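Quick start: read one record
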Amino acid sequence: MTTDHFIMTDGERIPIVYTAKSGARNIILRPKIAPVRELHVSIPRLTPVSRARVFIEEKRRWLERIFARAPQKVKLRDGDTINIFGEEYLILHSAGDINAEQKYIAVGGSPEFFERRLRDKIKEMFLIRVKEILKPVPQALRPSRIVVRDTTSRWGSCSSTGTISLSYRLAFAPPDIMKYVIMHELAHRKHMDHSPKFWGLLGQLYGPGVERAKQWLSKNGQTLHRYF
């Protein structure tokens, strides 16, 4: 239950969610940056919240660093522009009068649902783009099913049944990074591990630059959560 706030040096108030767990021996801090910014704190059942608060202060520099690196949410409005799939799009509440040469995304409905409908539209566009990227892939490696998700801990996954799950937030990444994650999951269709054979197959599917793509995601992945 949220009963407190972690107050950043810049004044931002981040809700603290305390959870008492039986059997736990230590206080565990889990800063969350998406879909909302919160600090989750697990404490042993008989440990007072005041002790957890002291521990939070002891870890203040670490927490400040994590939340400072994570992007603040950017609220999107009619007439703003966003970059998806490596291209700039104008976002509109309705098509209206626009420059036909400019790429745009138009969504309707009530203004309070503008961002939700925009997010749903980007998910649709993302799935279409994924299917285009899959076209040259050998049939044996193609997924049996594609699931579009909004995950915070991983960009993609591959099940033993051949289903690949992908975070639609890859739409905000450079196209080659999106392709890297897709090919990474397809390589798991044959090798459900990260063995040398897996990396070899990934290199064949993706081409040169695998290590660069990994590093980009490690360094810039948090920026893909700046919207919605």
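Residues 95 and 106 are 5 Å apart (CA to CA).
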